[in-house]
Amino acid sequence: MPLLRFDLIEGRDQSSLKKLLDVAHNVVVEAFDVPQQDRYQIVHEHPENHMIIEDTGLGFNRTKNLVVLSVTSKSRPEEKKQKFYRLLAERLESECGIASTDLIVSIVENDNADWSFGLGEAQFLTGKL
């Protein structure tokens, strides 16, 4: 159950935003082997001057198409994370026109006790999930 939070510069139209979210979800399903209906995405849009995202010395420029993706997830093997990064960059570029240099991903891991999907229960601990 990854939770994806997207920080974007405001101005994308609804169809572009939907495509971005759909592509990201399909990559999560493929790379992390989660069920199709396991979809949790939140979008935060910011004025351009509210995001200062540089290249960390890698030598490229960012554009207004910038996507900063924070993923909260249970622990995943390194190879699945690498697959996620690669597929996401490839598909956002090919399907959404977002350059791989405009993608930043951070994965924060947590454990089964850190999730409740409602009803005041930790369903991963109770066995309901």
Overview of the structural elements:
By secondary structure, this protein is of the alpha/beta class. It has a single domain (3-126), classed as 2-Layer Sandwich (Macrophage Migration Inhibitory Factor). It is built from 3 helices and 4 strands; from the N terminus they run βαββαβα. The chain has helices at 14-32, 78-96, 123-126, and strands at residues 3-9, 41-46, 67-74, 103-110. α1 (14-32) runs antiparallel to α2 (78-96). It is globular. It starts with a strand and ends with a helix. This is Probable tautomerase YrdN. Pfam families: Tautomerase_2 (PF14552). InterPro entries: Tauto_MSAD, Tautomerase/MIF_sf. Putative target of GltR.
Low-confidence stretches: none
Mean pLDDT: 97
Strand proportion, as a percent range, falls in 15-25%
Helix content range:
25-40%
Shape: globular
End-to-end C-alpha gap:
10 Å
How does CATH name the architecture?
Answer: 2-Layer Sandwich
How would a crystallographer describe the biggest sheet?
A: 4 strands, mixed
CATH superfamily: Macrophage Migration Inhibitory Factor
Protein name: Probable tautomerase YrdN
InterPro entries: Tauto_MSAD (IPR037479), Tautomerase/MIF_sf (IPR014347)
Pfam family, one: Tautomerase_2
Keywords: Isomerase
